[in-house]
């Protein structure tokens, strides 16, 4: 992490066991202020357990953490909870109350006076674009709209650190898109967000940095950094017809270190894609190979994840 930003969350050697089962093991990471950080991993990886420990809802077996400058200990529970807000996996709203009544109830729990509460409720409803639905009963709302109300609820206290546990779980593509837009918008307030998800494209779109969790931390970094760390740079080539002597063709281009593929499709490993791509294009043109496509290979976060899991497998 860049040393110029103070950490909003620091986690050192955090572990949680439930009896014999190790849910989280020796977790260490930092999240900078205003950063959107994605905790990624398959079902049972320990994501929710981590969030619950950081929000003082669950006591770690070992290790320590500091959230918004406060050491996470049982004695500091109230101080930590003043500084964090959790949007849990299930919205936790009262179905028979209206949107506004739900928010008023939670605002009272946060100890806001009624005028102050009304002002804040108006703000968060605007923020999640639900002002016009404020009098609707929660039971009449779609899952996507309920999730927006859950987000409004999490925003009510105006906490500097927000934990979003699987925020788009079970939503259809349109609702997913809307909730993601809202989360992306929170960035402008400088809120630090720890988001758990097993949807890699979600993390890719929303997060500055991600950590892959499988009880232990497998890797952490910016998605592009992780890609670079795991994959040799390469160029994808698609041609109009087969190449006669690929060894000869690729072999004479400076900066090409290897290739896979055959006939009209190749993935060419290179030292530096920006330098080598024009040289490769020249060589192909000289060999009268019609170029259909020539571009640096893209590795999605999913590729990164699969590569990491492959590296982890024994043998
Ligand atoms: N209260 C509990 N008692 C016993 N085991 C638990 C408890 N909470 C979680 N676990 C176990 O700890 C492990 C991690 O669970 P956790 O819910 O943190 O994973 P997750 O990454 O959030 O998964 P999901 O994506 O399914 O929500 C799992 O094996 C789970 O069964």
UniProtKB/TrEMBL annotation:
GO molecular function annotations of the record: ATP binding
Protein's cellular compartments: Cell membrane
Predominant location: membrane
Membrane topology reported for the UniProt record: Peripheral membrane protein
InterPro entries documented for this protein: AAA+_ATPase, ABC_transporter-like_ATP-bd, ABC_transporter_ATP-binding, DrrA1/2-like_C, P-loop_NTPase
Xref: Pfam families: ABC_tran, DrrA1-3_C
Residues of the ABC transporter domain: 9-239
Keywords carried by this UniProt record: Antibiotic resistance, ATP-binding, Nucleotide-binding, Transport
Listed CDD domains: ABC_DR_subfamily_A
Protein's recorded name: ABC transporter ATP-binding protein
Keyword ATP-binding: yes
């Amino acid at each position: 992490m860049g040393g110029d930003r103070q950490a909003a969350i620091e986690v050192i050697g955090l572990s949680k066991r439930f009896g014999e089962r190790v849910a989280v093991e020796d977790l260490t990471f930092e999240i900078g202020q205003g950063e959107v950080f994605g905790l990624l991993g398959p079902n049972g990886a320990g994501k929710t357990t981590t969030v619950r420990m950081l929000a003082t809802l669950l006591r770690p077996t070992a290790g320590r953490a500091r959230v918004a400058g406060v050491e996470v200990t049982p004695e500091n529970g109230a101080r930590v909870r003043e500084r964090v807000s959790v949007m849990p996996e299930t919205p936790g709203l009262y179905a028979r109350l209206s949107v506004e009544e739900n928010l008023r109830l939670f605002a009272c729990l946060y100890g806001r006076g009624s005028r102050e509460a009304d002002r804040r409720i108006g703000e968060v409803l605007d923020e999640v674009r639900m002002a016009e639905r404020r009098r609707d009963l929660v039971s009449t709302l779609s899952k996507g709209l309920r999730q927006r109300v859950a987000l409004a609820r999490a925003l009510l206290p105006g906490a500097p650190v927000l934990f979003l546990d699987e925020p788009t779980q079970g939503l259809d593509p349109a609702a997913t898109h809307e909730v993601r837009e809202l989360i992306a918008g929170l960035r402008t307030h400088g809120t630090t967000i720890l988001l758990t998800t097993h949807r890699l494209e979600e993390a890719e779109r929303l997060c500055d940095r991600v950590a892959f969790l499988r009880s232990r931390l497998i890797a952490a970094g910016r998605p592009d950094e992780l890609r670079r760390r795991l994959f040799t740079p390469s160029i994808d080539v698609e041609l109009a017809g087969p190449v006669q002597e690929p060894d000869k063709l690729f072999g004479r281009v400076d900066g090409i270190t290897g290739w896979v593929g055959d006939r009209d499709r190749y993935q060419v490993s290179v030292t530096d894609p920006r330098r080598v791509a024009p040289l490769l294009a020249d060589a192909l043109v000289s060999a009268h190979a019609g170029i259909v496509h020539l571009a640096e290979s893209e590795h999605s976060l999913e590729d990164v994840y699969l590569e990491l899991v492959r590296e982890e497998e024994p043998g």
